[in-house]
């Protein structure tokens, strides 16, 4: 019977809790509820010292708070609880079972500052070791697949090309156009001060094809595809499907990782080129609104943009795609087992993909500067 049922069955549910001591007998009465029991808690526990019997015959209502009081009062002398009605005895028994259940393990004390720094360093080394191991396993499996192309699942490759490439085209065109419009408008303000508005097309064009186009396309790929890879593989890891593949003798890297890496490497140049074209179209529309005809804008772009700049941007976008897909797959395969594992894996994939892309873009910038490209 529930506590609510106990209250409905007893007409004296609002009676004040009371107790009295007679020799080795401690008698409780009234309503031992959360509202009433705290008023007599300390005095009742003092009176319970030395008591051998606890009488509950006069208790009209008992909830978990009152039952806890009764059990604490009976605990020091292991007193016998008697006289309880059936509803009161049922609540008392449930409280006794709950109190006798194993308690949760207490949280360990926080580590000192030096200990926290050491724990952070050890965790970082473990993540680095796992990342190096994943990179080596992927490279070895890629070399093995080159010798046996049939091990690559081309159906999965086509599916990932559709998900990462074709379905990202509308978003890429939208962002590219907006970036071109924004760059053109913002560049026109200082250029107008010097009468150099004619140089807006080469300024925006070089910025797009060398840096912004590949970088923004990488952000799109990381937000859409990298997180999707991590969530999909993370779900498979949580559901132990990856372990089942290993038990069946199927290598998860060859089946799950390589098609995604190849798809990302193939779609990134296409997304980058689409980003560049849509950005240039947006810039051309702004220039037309400022009074510059389209043939003049095209002439300026032909004069300043080079094939080397375009190939440099498209080339590094391939590396961006491989890194983003690799980080997403690694985050999914190394996901934990808890309810937050998939979400944490997707977050790690997006953050890691964007940060790695920016760092890699900085390295390419230094390399191109040294090569005078």
Automatic annotation (TrEMBL):
Key word Membrane present in the record? yes
- Give the transmembrane region(s): 130-148, 168-185, 261-290, 310-333, 345-369
Q: Which organism is it from?
A: Teichococcus oryzae
Protein name (record): ABC transporter permease
Q: Name one Pfam family in it.
A: MlaE
Protein's UniProt keywords contain DNA repair: no
Molecular function GO terms recorded: phospholipid transporter activity
Q: Which domain of life is it from?
A: Bacteria
Listed A to Z, the keywords are: Membrane, Transmembrane, Transmembrane helix
GO terms under cellular component: ATP-binding cassette (ABC) transporter complex
